[in-house]
């Protein structure tokens, strides 16, 4: 399995948007305008529904803005968790509880591993997987097949920023997120990643 170098921008801006411009504003769901949405519900079934709706909102928001890595400290001050019109917000501890639920597998009573903590026990920076690495790997494999890229060598930079992938949903993806997805293909014997830092290449099989 290929281990990528540490991401140079990690300490600069843990919440990053892709470089492509967002032309349409994000449309929040109706529940976002419902004050109880921002208060943990005591009833078990109601709480589960609340967590599912928050998970859906977080994934949709991050997908729209092409956010892969979310800093909770920054995010709780953003419209994602702070509805200024209602003067309601999800605090840091409650936002962390939602992401903690998202990070668990469904069989563990969680949200299907749609999040993954980056900073260990601190739990302030998290991957938001609106598509999990396994799903991205499948999309990459389908693209390789459809475009006849098997047994050819591409740079990882080409995959992320190249003109040939400009129409693909992963275009502009964070480097570490791309490596996580490529490593799924490496484990399946469908890709090989090689090269020095900043010059990584990938060959698909």
Automatic annotation (TrEMBL):
Cellular component, GO, one term: ESCRT II complex
Keywords carried by this UniProt record: Cytoplasm, Protein transport, Transport
Gene Ontology BP annotations: macroautophagy; protein transport to vacuole involved in ubiquitin-dependent protein catabolic process via the multivesicular body sorting pathway
InterPro entries (alphabetical): ESCRT-II_cplx_Vps25-sub, ESCRT-II_cplx_Vps25-sub_N, WH-like_DNA-bd_sf, WH_DNA-bd_sf
Annotated Pfam families: ESCRT-II (PF05871)
Molecular-function annotations in GO: protein homodimerization activity; structural molecule activity
Predominant cellular place of this UniProt entry's protein: cytoplasm
Gene3D superfamilies cross-referenced by the UniProt entry: Winged helix' DNA-binding domain. Chain C. Domain 1 (1.10.10.570), Winged helix-like DNA-binding domain superfamily/Winged helix DNA-binding domain (1.10.10.10)
Cited PANTHER family: VACUOLAR PROTEIN SORTING-ASSOCIATED PROTEIN VPS25, VACUOLAR PROTEIN-SORTING-ASSOCIATED PROTEIN 25
Family of the protein in this entry: Belongs to the VPS25 family.
Protein name: Vacuolar protein-sorting-associated protein 25
Organism expressing this protein natively: Aspergillus chevalieri (Eurotium chevalieri)
